[in-house]
């Protein structure tokens, strides 16, 4: 018994012609990648601006209260001599740009 021929050959239908796969793949990947990068960049820029605005607001408020008496009370209450200054902590995101 002979193996059956594919239907395409039996019906006399020519094989399909596909465009170059590299061009199709690059178009399918390029647009979503650019859209994702643009959205991520926009969100990053928005967050950065909000952090800078908030940091400037806090700096303005704290500069009005930055008297020697307030600083001494802060050092005493936060145990700065024992645990270190929380302003210099890695978790102080608002203070990173200063």
Q: How would you sum up this structure, described in words?
A:
The chain has 98 residues and is mainly α. The chain has a domain at 41-98. The protein contains 4 helices and no strands. It has helices at residues 7-11, 21-64, 68-77, 80-83. The longest helix has 44 residues, at 21-64.
Provide a compact summary of the structure.
The chain has helices spanning 7-11, 21-64, 68-77, 80-83. With 98 residues, the protein is mainly α.
Topology diagram in text:
Layout: H1 7-11, H2 21-64, H3 68-77, H4 80-83
Helix amount, in percent? Answer: 55-70%
Which residue ranges are poorly predicted, with pLDDT under 50 across at least 5 consecutive positions? none
Distance between the termini: 84 Å
Strand count? 0
Question: Rg from C-alpha positions?
Answer: 32 Å
Please count the helical segments: 4
Order of helices and strands: HHHH
The largest sheet, given as strand count, sense and whether it forms a barrel, is: none
Instruction: Determine the strand fraction and express it as a percent band.
Output: under 5%
Quaternary state of the chains? single chain
Characterize the overall form. Answer: rod-shaped
